[in-house]
Amino acid sequence: MGGMNISSVGAGGYEPSRQVGAARQEQKALVEALREEREGQPDVAEMMKEAREKAAEREKMFKRPKSSRRYGDTTMIAYTKLARAKSLGDVDAASGYARRQIAQLRAAKHSDSDNADRIQAAINQLQKAVNRAGRKKREISQEKLTAKRQAKLEKEKRAREAKRLRHQLRSRQAARMIRESGYLREAEIDNRMQDHIAATKQEMRTQMQELTGQTQTTVDAAIQQYAAASAGPAPEPEINVQA
User: Fold this and answer.
1) CB-based contacts of 193: which residues, under 8 Å, 6+ apart?
2) Can you give the pLDDT at residue 112?
3) 3-state percent breakdown (helix, strand, coil) of the chain, nearest 5
4) Dmax of the chain from CA atoms?
């Protein structure tokens, strides 16, 4: 009887020891799995660096460097030269100026991409000036022919016909002057509109920069919260062994 009691106690004491060993192995495996999971997650410093790089790219996208050059001034100068031109040589000089400015602006468009729209608007106006210069040359040539015919009629004592041609010539010249003053007003209005568009775009870029800064602050805060949550030690699982 006594031998049977001792054997029974020994078997009962072995079973809890085996349970404790298995629980410790399970705890070790769980801690190792948590460590591997944490190591597999991106480093906090890398996350913050990546977020800052993306914010810098967005800021560069919406940033517009200030340009001291007013591209629209070239159109005003070109139309002023064209309006003051009295001879074919003067018109050629005005047209040559416009062509040179077009070539320079096309080159500037590649180096100053932030003002590409503004530059293209100036190119369009200058191209119109070149075309209008060609029209003015034809008109001046026609006016010279009309003046010669008028002088011939006056020489022949054909006063009525000479007077009619003189009135016709003055009417054409007056109409041309009015039209050319309209060219100047058109260029001025276009310049103002382009300035307004540029100011609007600049305001939008400023707002986007502010929004980007706020977004970056939110991202940094979220990363810091994540870092704080991840910095704590892995929880030790409880071992509940019932004897």
Assistant:
1) none
2) 86
3) 85, 0, 15
4) 165
- Complete DSSP assignment for 86-113: -SHHHHHHHHHHHHHHHHHHHHHHHH-G
Q: Which two tokens stand for residue 222?
A: 């979220």
At 87 the pLDDT is 93
Residues of the chain with pLDDT under 50: 1-11, 62-68, 234, 239, 241, 243
pTM of the model: 0.56
Q: How far apart are CA 194 and CA 122, in angstroms?
A: 9
The tokens for 5 are: 């009691």
Question: In angstroms, rounded to a whole number, what is the distance separating the alpha carbons of residues 90 and 84?
Answer: 8
Q: How far apart are CA 147 and CA 143, in angstroms?
A: 6
Q: Confirm if 167 and 159 have CB atoms less than 8 A apart.
A: no
Taken in order 59, 61, 67, 70, the sign of the CA dihedral is: negative
